[in-house]
Amino acid sequence: MRLSREELAKKGEQIAADFLEEKGFEIIERNYRYGHGELDIIAVDPSDGFTVFVEVKTRQNLYFGEPEYAITKSKQRQVKKVAELYLYDKEIENVNCRFDVIAILLEDDDNPVINHYENAFM
């Protein structure tokens, strides 16, 4: 079944959140918005205590390429800016952070292909 862009994004973010929780991550917040920017998932990695800002990209096919290639330099700058605003907004200081990408391919709804790129950009 073909999903709308919004439905696909929502489904991908749920798959990513479930995936992270299975790995022991604590989900702090989802879909945090500041101005025109959004952070898909904010979590804490249990292995190192880092606050992780996760960008999720989901595709139903490879017609436009692998989902991870949609994370352009411009998108990276936007995610970093909103992450800075999140830390400021929540008055969080002196915390180690990183930016991860979770790419999901949903060609088969029952068996999504999930790639988790830790520290994907700086």
Describe the protein's topology:
Layout: H1 5-22, E1 26-34, E2 37-44, E3 51-59, H2 73-89, E4 97-105, E5 113-121
Features:
122 residues; alpha+beta; Trna Endonuclease, Chain: A, domain 1; 5-stranded mixed sheet; 2 helices; 5 strands
User: Widest sheet: strand order?
Assistant: 1-2-3-4-5
The quaternary organization reads as single chain
Order of helices and strands: HEEEHEE
> What profile does the largest beta sheet have?
5 strands, mixed
The end-to-end span amounts to 36 Å
Estimate the helix proportion, in percent. 25-40%
Radius of gyration: 14 Å
Strand percentage lies at 35-45%
Could you explain how this protein is built, in words?
The protein is an alpha+beta fold and 122 residues long. Helices cover 29% and strands 36% of the residues. The chain has a single domain, classed as Trna Endonuclease, Chain: A, domain 1 (3-Layer(aba) Sandwich). Strand 1 and strand 2 (37-44) form a beta hairpin. The longest helix has 18 residues, at 5-22.
Summarize the structure.
This protein has 122 residues and is α+β, with helices and mostly antiparallel strands. The chain has helices at 5-22, 73-89; strands at 26-34, 37-44, 51-59, 97-105, 113-121. It has a five-stranded mixed sheet with strand order 1-2-3-4-5, sandwiched between helices.
